[in-house]
Amino acid sequence: MSDHKTLTETIALRNHEPAPLYQQVKQGIITLIRSGQWLPRQRVPSESELVTELGVSRMTINRALRELTSEGFLLRLQGVGTFVAEMKAFTPMLEVHNIADEIASRGHLHASNVLFLRAERASASDARALGLAPGATLFHSQIIHFENQVPVQLEDRQVNPQIAPDYLQQDFTKMTPHAWLSKVAPLSAGEHVVEAVKASEEERQLLQITAAEPCLQIQRRTWHQQTVVTCARLLYPGGRYKMFGRFQTSS
Known about the structure:
This protein folds into two domains: about 5-85, Arc Repressor Mutant, subunit A, CATH 1.10.10.10; about 90-245, Chorismate lyase (3-Layer(aba) Sandwich). The chain has eight helices and ten strands. The chain has helices at about 5-10, 20-35, 45-55, 60-70, 100-105, 125-130, 175-185, 200-205; strands at about 75, 80-85, 90, 110-120, 135-145, 150-160, 190-195, 215-225, 225-235, 240-245.
């Protein structure tokens, strides 16, 4: 059971805040989990206990707990209780985010290692994907991203030089390609192809995984206005990442 003093200090609800009360409850619980005050597999207070302690409605607490469960922060067992889940890092499935920001949002440290950054001649398929003429020059980078010194993503990216002519001059250990490209050519549209794949031997070595571990692959293409900016292949170790997405119907 959590320390109630810690609970009320962390989840300091304010009725005048623009965020709804259930979101304030959610954020307070996330803070307790990320700070290590609530540990994985620890039983958390019941709905009734939270209602009494925080002075809000059961509906507010129920919604907060339901959403935290769907997002992977909590595990609710019928008739047993609610527990802090064993956390995997997650990447938003339907959105385009900067991995450095994702990692920082979990209170962790991002670092990267640039494997190469160079100009190449476009193959016929690469040229079609980027909207270039076959044999035209494209920019190609490969970067390994780390979360608390553990490799979590291998980024293989091709960039349209017509949109980002200074790409090869950037230090991508200080800013990710996504962050830099978002400033140079803000995203207008994008597409994702998501699938489970087996990594090559070289990729397994870079990601520090075994041959038996599957990987999650996202192939992403983005546009600025009507022009393709970049094609990226993002490879995640399956045991360290999960996808998260949310949708809402119009009804």
